[in-house]
Design brief:
Number of helices: 8
Structural class: mainly alpha
Strand content: under 5%
Radius of gyration: 15 Å
Largest sheet: none
Order of helices and strands: HHHHHHHH
Shape: globular
Length: 159
């Protein structure tokens, strides 16, 4: 389902107030999705906000104000960089950034479905980078856990 640019703009407005004040890695990664949706390079304002968000998450990751800081440093920052790369259509970079994280993303919290968006992003990036073996390997691995998942089946059909 493509929510369209207007939907993401609605999400972006309240989230943009949070930029520079990270406190929960899971939320920051979802904020980055709203910033990186579509061709981020087409919006200088969104690109600037995305870079500002990554910088603030890097600073948060280096602090010790909560147990989430280490998660932000080890997973949140590279995950947000991958989402930004996706928005910039640098699909090989997305694959390079996400593959090492795929077993650690669970540490950011959220449900299986909420985290699955990152696996789908990785698969889509691998397909767009023409790295079909990588895409299929991830699909097969995920289908072992959820054999009747229709999204995974549609992605497999694309490969």
């Amino acid at each position: 389902i493509d929510p369209g640019e207007k939907r993401w703009e609605l999400v972006l407005k309240p989230f943009s107030l949070r930029i520079g004040h990270p406190d929960f890695t899971w939320l920051e990664t979802h904020l980055m999705m709203s910033l990186a949706y579509g061709k981020i390079s087409a919006s200088a304002a969104r690109l600037a906000l995305a870079k500002k968000m990554i910088k603030s998450l890097e600073e948060y990751g280096q602090s010790t104000v909560s147990s989430d800081c280490k998660v932000a440093d080890m997973i949140g920052v590279p995950l947000c960089n991958a989402l930004l790369a996706y928005g910039e259509e640098r699909y090989s970079d997305v694959v390079a950034l996400l593959v090492p994280l795929k077993y650690d993303i669970i540490k950011i919290g959220g449900s299986w479905a909420q985290r699955q968006v990152f696996s789908i992003t990785l698969i889509q990036a691998a397909i767009k980078a023409k790295n079909y073996c990588q895409a299929m390997a991830i699909i097969i691995e995920l289908k072992a856990q959820k054999p009747h998942n229709k999204t995974l089946q549609r992605l497999q059909d694309q490969v």
